[in-house]
Amino acid sequence: MTAFEVLAAAAAVATGLAGGVLFAFSGFVMAGLQRLTPDAAAAAMRGINVTAVRPPLMILLLAAVVLPAATGVIGLVTEAEGAWWALAAALLTFVGVLAVTGLRNVPLNDRLAAAEEPGVEWVRYVGPWLRWNHVRTAAGGVASLVLAVIA
């Protein structure tokens, strides 16, 4: 295996894991929280948001952007077929996962954390948060698929 192929495989795993973590929220975590009262759901999500900002998730999200970018750069330098696809996956992950997280989901999380009436805020929060999470999930999944194909 070439360095490009090894990096592409590692990048596929990282983006797939990131997309998978996000899929868990789209697939069942948020649905489970919605079965609770709004106050209980808000309290649970506040707890999740506090514990999410720790090395396991932060390293994974960083790897999901850095590894595809490194794959693309190595691919360009070595003239590997698929280098531009790796860069496209890096861009997709940067915009669709990292930027959406920072520009959409985190501000919603911050608003929920600061709410004086968490249950009321939860009702406004859950729909937009979930829609943006679907975007993040899809971006991670598509990037992983692209990288797996070129690996």
Describe the structure.
InterPro entries: Anthrone_oxy. Pfam families: Anthrone_oxy (PF08592). It comes from Isoptericola sediminis. This protein is an all-alpha fold and 151 residues long. The protein has one domain (3-150). 89% of the residues lie in helices and 0% in strands. The chain has five helices and no strands. The chain has helices spanning 3-34, 38-52, 55-77, 83-114, 118-150. Helix 1 runs antiparallel to helix 3 (55-77), helix 2 packs across helix 5 and helix 3 (55-77) runs antiparallel to helix 4. The longest helix has 33 residues, at 118-150. The protein is elongated. The termini are close together. The mean pLDDT is 97.
Helix content: over 70%
Which geometry do the CA atoms define?
elongated
Distance between the termini: 9 Å
- The average pLDDT score comes to 97
Class based on secondary structure composition and strand pairing: mainly alpha
Short description:
The protein is an all-alpha fold and 151 residues long.
Q: What descriptive keywords fit this protein?
A:
151 residues; mainly alpha; 89% helix; elongated
Outline the secondary-structure elements.
Elements (H helix, E strand, L loop, with lengths): L2 H32 L3 H15 L2 H23 L5 H32 L3 H33 L1
Helix pairs in contact: 1-3, 1-4, 1-5, 2-5, 3-4, 4-5
